[in-house]
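In the design runs reported in the main text, the only information available to the sequence generator was the tokenized backbone. The following block is the verbatim input for one such run; it is reproduced so that readers can re-run the procedure and compare outputs position by position.
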């Protein structure tokens, strides 16, 4: 077997189907062209690459807090999909419980797009997520994690960090792994307080595919988090990607960076345990 045929769980991808679920007109960015992909097409892609399950993430682009496309995909997937929803900051316990019953396992927060001030009052929401044993998923950039640390420590909610924490560059071909934000992320890993997605390289790489500058970042994350707190994800269909990306060549990057037993851990064993997918490969 190789990386293309090994069983996998994709822990971060999106489905967009504006033909059936029109975009929210109040959202400024509407994905188009090859940025789009509906659930039926993604199931075909999954079959091509031995992806058995996927964690669908509600996109801020196009839909924001409209989760109908996400929930429809989960409902029609016969157990292949679970989801991370985008909700208002005042979302009630009742609504969160309803989403959980429909296959949602967490809520996405995107400070890299919205900033800290937009989320400064989310501690009550985090408490409700903890009460329901749901994940709080954060896409942060640079030092963007730092202002959230006090509330995360107080609440103790389960934390998912998107895209390796998106560290910033320190030069034209290197990434800053000494920043306070990245050091704080590594500390969360050492303390067992978070899970990190090894994904989204195109969002912070300075050199582009095959992302040689990202390898030290992922190596550091694995060293501090451990393989049982690291998960692979594709980020398909690569919203706002600065250049063309394809599923197969992206998988080959992980084949070069990780041994077969490591890939099985981050691509199957760990996400199956964390998100409650079937454990038989």
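Verbatim output:
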């Amino acid at each position: 077997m190789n990386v293309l045929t090994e069983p996998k769980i994709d822990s971060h991808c999106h489905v967009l189907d504006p033909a059936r679920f029109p975009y929210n007109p109040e959202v400024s960015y509407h994905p188009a062209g090859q940025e789009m992909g509906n659930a039926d097409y993604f199931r075909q892609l999954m079959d091509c690459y031995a992806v058995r399950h996927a964690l669908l993430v509600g996109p801020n682009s196009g839909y924001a807090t409209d989760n109908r496309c996400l929930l429809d995909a989960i409902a029609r997937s016969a157990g292949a999909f679970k989801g991370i929803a985008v909700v208002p900051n005042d979302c009630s316990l009742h609504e969160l419980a309803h989403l959980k019953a429909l296959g949602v396992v967490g809520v996405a927060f995107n400070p890299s797009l919205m900033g800290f001030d937009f989320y400064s009052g989310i501690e009550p929401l985090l408490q409700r997520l903890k009460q329901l044993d749901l994940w709080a998923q954060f896409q942060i950039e640079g030092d963007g994690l730092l202002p959230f640390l006090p509330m995360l420590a107080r609440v103790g909610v389960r934390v998912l960090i998107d895209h390796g924490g998106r560290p910033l560059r320190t030069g034209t071909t290197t990434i800053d792994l000494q920043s306070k934000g990245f050091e704080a992320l590594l500390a969360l890993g050492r303390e067992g307080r978070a899970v990190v997605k090894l994904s989204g390289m195109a969002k912070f790489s300075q050199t582009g595919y095959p992302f040689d500058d990202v390898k030290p970042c992922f190596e550091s994350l694995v060293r501090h988090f451990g393989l049982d707190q690291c998960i692979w994800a594709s980020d398909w269909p690569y919203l706002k990607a600065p250049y063309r990306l394809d599923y197969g060549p992206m998988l080959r990057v992980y084949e070069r960076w990780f041994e077969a037993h490591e890939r099985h851990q981050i691509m199957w064993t760990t996400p199956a345990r964390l998100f409650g997918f079937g454990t038989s490969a």
